[in-house]
Design the sequence.
């Protein structure tokens, strides 16, 4: 059984309606292009930031750990 693909345009649409629809789509194209470019720039910026954070994490993990010797003040300690 084969499914027929239907056109998003009604079969009875006249040329003026089709041209109007085409013009609306053409007007949207630059907006989509701008949003796509902005998203790509943001993604690149986030990748750079992520790389910096990963590098910093690696540096911090490579440092020798300092063990703090915390003493309990017996006056304030109530088990």
Sequence:
């Amino acid at each position: 059984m084969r499914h027929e693909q239907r056109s998003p345009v009604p079969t009875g649409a006249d040329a003026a309606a089709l041209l109007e629809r085409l013009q609306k789509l053409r007007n949207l194209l630059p907006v989509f292009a701008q949003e796509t470019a902005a998203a790509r720039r943001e993604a690149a910026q986030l990748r750079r930031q992520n790389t910096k954070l990963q590098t910093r994490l690696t540096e911090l993990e490579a440092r020798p750990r300092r063990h703090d010797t915390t003493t309990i003040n017996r006056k304030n300690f109530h088990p």
